[in-house]
Design a protein that fits this description.
Elements lengths: L1 H17 L7 E3 L8 E4 L4 E4 L1 H29 L7 H10 L11 E3 L5 E5 L4 E5 H10 L13 E2 L2
Parallel strand pairs: 1-3, 2-4
Antiparallel strand pairs: 2-3, 5-6, 5-7
Helix pairs in contact: 1-2, 2-3
Bound molecules: zinc ion (ZN) (2 copies).
One zinc ion binds next to helix 2 and strand 4.
Length: 155
């Protein structure tokens, strides 16, 4: 209830600032572990951690709700940009009027739809998050069909 109220207040500020109607995100409480909240940009959904919410109350609502909502608003206004880049900072400070702090291990932004550049011997490949995770997490290797070289992450 308090979460919804904070969300609506922040959404009103953004609507007024940009003189438009942002699409309100769906809210659910399905986050576990150390993450306080996760913003699913393309799905326009914010998930909160009910345990951390119960433990941190007001602090959680004042920090985590605008933080995650800012990710959603930035996506609707600017598209896919750096998660805590200048657009997000501007949204936090100028629009929502809160300090743009990225809280300690509190959140992650969903990166579904994002691609990761990999190179082989002949070109740059854009890999999906699924393939990228398979390489990083599961040690999978992918070979370029053209030059038969293994793909390496472009750093
Ligand atoms: Zn964040
Ligand atoms: Zn190649």
């Amino acid at each position: 209830m308090q979460v919804q109220r904070q969300l609506q207040r922040d959404l009103d500020k953004a609507n007024q600032f940009f003189n438009k109607q942002f699409t309100p995100p769906t809210v659910s409480y399905a986050v576990r572990g150390v993450k306080a909240g996760v913003a699913y940009l393309q799905r326009n959904e914010i998930r909160f951690n009910p345990t951390l919410l119960a433990e941190n109350g007001t602090e959680f609502i004042q920090q985590v709700v605008p933080h995650e909502l800012a990710h959603i608003l930035v996506y609707q206004q600017f598209g896919l940009v750096q998660p805590h880049g200048k657009e997000w900072k501007m949204m936090m400070e100028q629009v929502l009027g809160v300090p743009a702090e990225t809280y300690h291990c509190f959140d992650t932004t969903s990166v579904q739809g994002k691609t990761f550049p990999y190179s082989c011997g002949c070109q740059t490949h854009q890999l999906s998050i699924r393939r990228h995770n398979a390489i990083v997490r599961d040690g999978r290797a992918y070979i370029c069909k053209k030059c038969k070289q293994p793909l390496k992450a472009v750093s």
